Amino acid sequence: MQHKEEILNQLHAICAKDEQATRCHHNYFTQEVNEDCRRKMVEWSFTVVDSFNLSRESVWRAIDILDRFLSSGKGSSVKARENKQSFQLASTVCLYMAVKVHEDVEMTIGFLVKLCRSYYTASEFISMEHDILFALRWSICQTTPLDFARQCLLLQLDCFDPETIDCILENTQKQMDLATSDVYFASYKQSSVGIACLGAALVESDVNSAEQEEFWSQLSSMLNFDFASKEVREVERHMLSGSTICKPKRQSQLVLSKTTSQKSCNEQTSPVSILSCV
């Protein structure tokens, strides 16, 4: 088990990275590529990761890369905002990049070609990946709201029993799944979204008010962090408004640390197709 000082250092590092991160603006849509197109690609991405038993957290990572790329105004991002086929290509490559970096799987360009049933060529995938990397200056390894929530819970393991912690983590993941489909959250810090998801998860996990208050009080004291900041409140209000969509199709298997088992996507036949998504 990690030492509390190490966890605190990780949380401070997440917050520092959050302050420096480039946020996307959620008004990058056009008449051709709108918010519904983005939502459909999120749903498709969840279908892919569920089909191959990958982490749903990879979808958040993928969409974060996509939003920042489309907001950058660099390279082919302009075309991707104006053309649905280019938007689909960029979305698929972002998922590929997220899985390649963060999952213990082997996913190849050849697999992407099969996944999309040869609608795009290998050279198109490679070209788009290079374009995204250069547009974002290779900054694709961002933290997620679940990263922040997970570390907060690790820091406060003595507050809840193991079963309750598992339940809170599962419900935090569900909240993040819902938030992934709503571009509103893309312009906020990962930590702010993580706090809002964790707060909703505590309620859903039937943690009583006194325990919640004690949890946040201790966490705030240890981190010297304002958990009731204006930004956090804005995220919470939007989350409570019910505007988030795309309910998860299954409950993810969650662990506090990443497994090291090796899996392969390439030996399976793709059960999904991208062609009818947008």
TrEMBL record:
UniProt domain Cyclin N-terminal: residue ranges: 16-140
Gene Ontology MF terms in the entry: cyclin-dependent protein serine/threonine kinase regulator activity
InterPro entries on file: Cyclin, Cyclin-like_sf, Cyclin_A/B-like, Cyclin_N
Domain of life: Eukaryota
Gene3D superfamilies (alphabetical): Cyclin-like
An annotated GO BP: mitotic cell cycle phase transition
Protein name: Cyclin N-terminal domain-containing protein
Native source organism of the sequence: Skeletonema marinoi
